[in-house]
């Protein structure tokens, strides 16, 4: 899932839906410092919230991430029930090196349970493409990407933004359906230049980085599919993925592979190619601006 593509809103709505289906739900989002225990055992909920308070105080995020295993077992020890674990951007908290082991541990709760259960649902979401690579190399992992919002849904969100604003088509060309880019544009008084300048700093598009990769970056801002060439240095691809500037090796556009609607197979206006895409048009613009400003 791309950064700030709407996954957190999707997961929090999933918590509500699962509760309506009589699931006991544990929700973790360390980056936003949000933890929820929608469970019907008061002492288990109290224990979870105590752990959350300790974690917020000392920021030892691994504690609560790992505690999920014991809390689920405790819920199931008391009675056979429906349980769900929803983890949002948890890999940044426990470390990428531990990501595969964490997912495998959660999978083992389903395949090799200590106590009987009615149903278990586990959803883990990340905005880092490196996490996908780390987990995706294991055959037991089932990964589904989520793209930015489709045009119709994004327009509905745009129309709810108060005050004067640029025409929708202009905002769409900047954001490509990414709700966080819409937010950043609104907070910047609809100044695309301000948002681009912020991205240049955040993504570490330094003169050294630009100078080193200029030849390839000039090709990629015009067509992201240039990165699919066998001649592209692996180091450049890795650095662009680490900075969350691109999505590399995109899934086939069949709906079965995606959460919600997949992107078009090619959309030059938004910087989407068949195998490689910019996270959003404004990410591409940040690289283009850095190229112009670095001589």
Please state the overall shape, judged from the principal axes of the Cα atoms.
elongated
Helix content estimate: 40-55%
Q: Which strand order does the major sheet show?
A: 2-1-3-4
Number of individual domains: 2
Low-confidence blocks of residues: none
Query: What profile does the largest beta sheet have?
Result: 4 strands, mixed
| SS class | alpha/beta
What is the β-strand count? 6
Q: Please, what is the average pLDDT?
A: 87
Termini separation: 34 Å
Number of helices: 13
Write up this protein:
The protein starts with 6 loop residues before the first helix and ends with a helix. The mean pLDDT is 87. The longest helix is centred in the first third of the chain and has 18 residues, at 61-78. It folds into two domains: 7-136, no CATH class; 151-293, no CATH class. It has 295 residues and is α/β, with parallel strands linked by helices. 50% of the residues lie in helices and 11% in strands. It is elongated and about 65 Å long.
């Amino acid at each position: 899932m791309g950064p700030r593509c709407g996954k957190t809103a999707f997961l929090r709505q999933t918590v509500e839906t699962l509760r309506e289906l009589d699931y006991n739900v544990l929700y973790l989002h360390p980056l936003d410092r949000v933890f929820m225990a929608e469970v019907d055992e008061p002492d288990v909920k109290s224990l979870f919230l105590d752990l959350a308070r300790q974690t917020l105080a000392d920021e030892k995020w691994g504690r609560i991430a790992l505690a999920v295993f014991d809390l689920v077992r405790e819920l199931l020890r008391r009675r056979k029930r429906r349980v769900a674990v929803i983890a949002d951007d948890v890999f940044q908290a426990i470390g990428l090196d531990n990501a595969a082991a964490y997912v495998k541990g959660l999978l083992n709760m389903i395949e090799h349970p200590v106590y009987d259960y009615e149903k278990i649902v586990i959803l883990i979401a990340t905005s880092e493409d490196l996490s996908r690579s780390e987990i995706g190399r294991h055959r037991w992992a089932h990964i589904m990407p989520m793209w930015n919002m489709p045009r119709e849904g994004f327009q509905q969100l745009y129309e709810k933004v108060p005050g004067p604003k640029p025409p929708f088509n202009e905002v769409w060309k900047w954001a490509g359906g990414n709700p966080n880019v819409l937010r950043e544009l609104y907070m910047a008084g609809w100044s695309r230049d301000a948002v681009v300048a912020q991205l240049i700093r955040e993504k570490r598009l330094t003169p050294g980085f630009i100078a080193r990769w200029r030849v390839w970056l000039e090709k990629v801002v015009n067509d992201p599919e240039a990165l699919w060439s066998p001649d592209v240095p692996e180091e450049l691809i890795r650095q662009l993925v680490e900075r969350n500037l691109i999505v590399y090796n995109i899934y086939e556009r069949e709906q079965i592979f995606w959460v919600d609607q997949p992107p078009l197979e090619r959309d030059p206006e938004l910087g989407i190619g068949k195998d490689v895409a910019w996270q959003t048009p404004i990410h591409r613009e940040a690289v283009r601006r850095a190229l112009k400003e670095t001589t």
